[in-house]
Design a protein that fits this description.
301 residues, alpha/beta, D-Maltodextrin-Binding Protein, domain 2, seven-stranded mixed beta sheet, five-stranded mixed beta sheet, 36% helix
């Protein structure tokens, strides 16, 4: 039987916050939509963002892009995310988004279910450790006896992080403790609060942190594999003309003052046109997901 997931609205012109619910309380800023999308405005353009960060952070980070697209498309652009990556994946397959920012390992199946790759972020991603400056951690050799955190299961950094941890001469539950957190931000906050010693995360996440938090922490490059960044895909049902307008709007955003400020603040480095080669490369990470957690999310339930 097909599994149906609720969504959480991130937008609102003023970004009004509502009491959070669900598994990760910091990740929800509005109640879930009705399963049939009955509270969708007639002219709403639905912008789905992978839940790699808290809902509040996703809203703050992507607001300039949302505003620019709204003006360019002359549509009310509404931002959405989900409580976890699995929920986000199913929402995309349920045709819930017009534009989606998806991690590389979700791209093949999302394309198979009616989305067209438009652009990807230019800068590759690195697996990093975030630790407290006072923790005395400088490399993988210092993980013994430590509390290690990963972002939510099926996120790219959980999957690649698990691969890296399994390559070490250490055993989870014996040499170190391993805990999953709802998002990159949640695990980094846990490190800052001394509830965790190491957060495995991404360099862009570090750049998007509050400067006050960064002052107390250290970012360590572990020298592991570089990964493709996220891809922006449009729903094919929008039609060729609308998809072309959307692509042009994204390109215009990248050249605009707002876009340049966005890319400088996030570390994404700009947009690069997505190609068939990118989609083929994405299969490598889909395979890694299956090797790590079986088949991963599947539309068949």
């Amino acid at each position: 039987m097909r599994r149906i997931w609720g969504m959480f609205v991130l937008c609102g012109a003023l970004g009004a916050f509502v009491a959070p619910t669900a598994r990760a309380q910091s990740d929800a800023v509005a109640p879930p939509l009705a399963a049939d999308g009955s509270n969708k405005g007639a002219n709403d353009f639905r912008f789905g963002i992978s839940p790699f960060n808290s809902a509040g952070a996703l809203l703050r980070i992507h607001q300039p892009l949302r505003d620019f697209l709204g003006k360019s498309l002359k549509r009310n652009v509404v931002m959405f995310s989900a409580r976890d990556h699995e929920s986000f994946f199913f929402n995309a397959l349920d045709d819930q988004y017009d534009l989606v920012i998806a991690p590389i390992h979700f791209v093949p199946r999302i394309v198979d279910h009616g989305y067209v790759p438009l652009v990807r972020y230019r800068n590759p991603l690195d697996l990093m450790m975030v630790v407290r400056k006072s923790a005395g951690i400088a490399s993988a050799e210092d993980l013994r006896g430590r509390r290690v955190g990963l972002p939510d299961r099926l996120s790219l950094y959980n999957i690649v992080g698990m691969q890296w941890l399994r390559s070490l001469p250490l055993k989870v539950g014996v040499d170190y403790e391993l805990t999953e957190y709802p998002s990159h931000l949640a695990e980094i906050i846990a490190v800052d609060a001394d509830k965790l010693d190491v957060a495995l995360t991404a360099s862009p996440t570090w750049m998007q942190l509050d400067p006050g938090i960064r002052e107390r922490l250290t970012l360590i490059d572990i020298g592991y594999q570089k990964m493709p960044s996220m891809t922006l895909l449009a729903r094919r049902k929008l039609g060729k003309a609308m998809i072309a307008r959307l692509y042009d709007a994204l390109e215009d955003f990248a050249r605009s003052p707002e876009g340049k400020k966005f890319f400088a603040a996030t570390g994404y480095g700009g947009f690069v046109k997505a190609t068939n080669r990118d989609v083929k490369k994405a299969h490598q990470y889909e395979t890694l997901m299956r090797q790590t957690y079986g088949d991963g999310p599947s539309p068949a339930r």
